[in-house]
Amino acid sequence: MSDNKSTAGCGIHNHQKKIAAVNDFTGFGRCALAVALPVISRLGVQCCAAPTALLSNHTAFPSCFIENLTPHFQAYTAEWKKLDLCFDGIMTGYLGSLDQISMAEHFITDFSDSSTLVIVDPIMGDNGKRYRNLPDGVCQALRHLVSLAHIITPNLTEACLLTGTDFHDGAWKRQELDRLLDRLHDLGPAQIVITGIPQGKFVANMIRTKDGRHPLLRQQHVGCAYSGTGDIFVSILAADAVNGVELIRSVRRASLFIKKCILLSAELGIPGTDGVCFEEVLGTLQKV
Q: Measured between alpha carbons, how far is 99 from 105 in angstroms, rounded to an integer?
């Protein structure tokens, strides 16, 4: 991929690498676009927000204000068409309805070409179960969205849901994870990261690389669960991918950065709902 797309016939607004981030915007509780914007920008890539919803705070809090922006999304992105915006990467996060998944598909079709990297985080469940607020049919719809992606980052639950694999709470054997990666690859994406695999005192990320390798990267589990760490993880991977960083290296540095954020957040007594205080250590995250 070239350093920018201006040489590929795009206009004056495309002299810098750009990622379009299709996700919701949450005012409090660091997640989604609220973390994608600073993290991707820190890595030298312009992050263009394509908001699907506006939230006062995310839904893990007792209550929140939500404004669904789906009815306005087409008009919003039509203005980007007028500007002839081209994107080196398109990243999708939480999509809360079948309409939003379809909307993300159309956005990818409208704004990508052969050089655009598509990164999909197929958010739909955890702990072996689909999120209750998601509609029936979301799994099939996300399978189709995943088929458009170059890189996907499901957690273990989401990997099972996408492939029709039975989830279990016990330790996952290496052969089981290998089969899971192969089934995900059959859906279309060339590169895959199954995130947050519990392994006793460790947590692991299982990777499928472009050349078909299946490395397993482990690190010691620290702290409690914090909202938004997955959004930070995929933001680093997306920016690194656009910058040409090899996937295994990107996963390692994203994992180490999040570990640093969690340790500091635990030290400061930050509640899990508030997300990690990445601002304190963002300066340590460097463009490769």
A: 10
